[in-house]
Amino acid sequence: MPITPKQIIQISNLARIKIEQDQVNLLTEKIGEIISFIDKLKTIDTNEIEPLFNPLDAIQKLRFDKITEIDESDKFLGIAPSVRKNLFVVPKVID
Known about the structure:
The chain has 95 residues and is mainly alpha-helical. The protein has a domain at 5-42. Helices cover 42% and strands 4% of the residues. The chain is built from three helices and two strands. The chain has helices spanning 5-15, 21-42, 73-79, and strands spanning 83-84, 87-88. It has a two-stranded antiparallel sheet with strand order 1-2. A hairpin with a 2-residue loop joins strand 1 (83-84) and strand 2. The model has no long low-confidence stretch (mean pLDDT 91).
């Protein structure tokens, strides 16, 4: 299923990503190539391939879950410009 320039513009609007008009055709072509490559990958027969969970066959080293630092939250909250219910109050940055 090929992607169209109209779809690129619609997706960019939904994602709130500004795309210049002269870049729409190039982006349509590049995304089309990616989709085409994914379609090729879907045709590969993987029935005989065992799932691979870690390419390095490494074993995760675990550590004990213990506290190693002292609680200094009161110290940091004490120097904050604004605090409410033990949380930092910051200006709103997203509408």
